Amino acid sequence: MPSFQPPLRVLMGPGPSDVHPRVLAAMARPTIGHLDPAFVAMMEEVKQLLRSAFRTRNQLTIPVSGPGSVGMETCFVNLVEPGDTVIVCQNGAFGGRMKENVERCVATPVMVIDDWGKGIDLDKVRDAIAANPGAKALAFVHAETSTGVRAEAEQLCKMARDAGILTIVDAVTSLGGIAIEVDGWGIDAIYSGSQKCLSCTPGLSPVSFSERATEVIKGRNRKVQSWFMDLNLVMSYWQGSGGGAPRSYHHTAPINALYGLHESLTMLQEEGIENAWARHRKHHEALRDGLEAMGLKMLVAEHERLPQLNSVVIPDGVEDAPVRKALLANYNLEVGAGLGALAGKVWRIGLMGTSSTPNHVTLCLAALEATLAAAGAKIRTGKALAAANKVLFAG
Ligand SMILES: *Cc1c(COP(=O)(O)O)cnc(C)c1O
What we know:
The chain is α/β, with parallel strands linked by helices. The chain has two domains: 21-270, 3-Layer(aba) Sandwich (Aspartate Aminotransferase, domain 2); 273-392, Alpha-Beta Complex (Aspartate Aminotransferase, domain 1), CATH 3.90.1150.10. The chain is 42% helix and 15% strand. The strands form three sheets. A seven-stranded mixed β-sheet has the order 2-10-9-8-5-3-4, sandwiched between helices. Helix 4 (93-104) links the parallel strand 3 and strand 4 (108-113). Helix 2 (37-54) crosses helix 10. The longest helix is centred in the last third of the chain and has 21 residues, at 273-293. The mean pLDDT is 97. The site of pyridoxal-5'-phosphate (PLP) has 14 residues, from helix 3.
């Protein structure tokens, strides 16, 4: 069996995004022990970098070992106990997974449901909070990658805060791509992923917990049912057991993956997080103008659209799969299919992290235009690149 040589793709789906060569190079550095003092010093830097990306001073800010789903589960299993009630907003695939998590904690989810492609209705959330005064938490997805919708996170957190309940926020696709203010908005528990706008390899999930949430975890009635995700145990490795006590082994950290995360967070810091948000916005606008110049339509209303995940409606008479297949075969370009209620109806074009550049926008527009024209779709040709260029290079 020869070594595996993956093809060189351009990743413009819902994640993973393109991983920068600097991150891949960092991951190829020598593996050292997970308690080596040099490694421990790097862990402290990763925590510091994550605090600055999340815009928080939260002590309990670490990358958990596992993909975004493990970050999600870490938040739920540590905060939710049997018998609790959690208000869960669902307007796409990932809100549904939050519901699953609540149920598996033997707690009761109170669902606030909105259509796929639409934002979370704040009035419905307000009503649910009023109707469930004993609720422990409000859980919602900040950037719903299955649809491309942004939640009004600041307002949602304010409502929860005013009612004295915790917030659990999915920021897997938002961190690094759009504004998040963990301290400014009063978020209690947040989880993200390494492979979306941070453009690291998949497999790590940054999480952060407020002082309030940390107290709730420490004061639990019963042990967290998951040994692996029990933060009381995980923290004995990530911060020692307090009073300068040495760190102890919990599980072997994914050493080289953490080098990669360190590098991607360093790159984010070098760019400046506000500049990263502005870059994601600009490239979204260029892609949008190009798609609209072709005559294609965006699924999500402008005011609640994510710049890093663009759901574009598949034009009438065009089949989904053959187009994506041709993009991959002819251009090495991966775009995402629709999920759930949107399967066959939209393509999801990611402009995340290292995949948010002028090159990605222009390749995608040119490749899509040629592929759709060849498929006989009724689109306007010869306009898209000029429209995108105006955004990308004007001034
Ligand atoms: C990708 C994603 C997840 C899951 O992350 P994995 O790394 O695939 O486990 C969770 N929530 C949202 C919003 C996502 O986009």
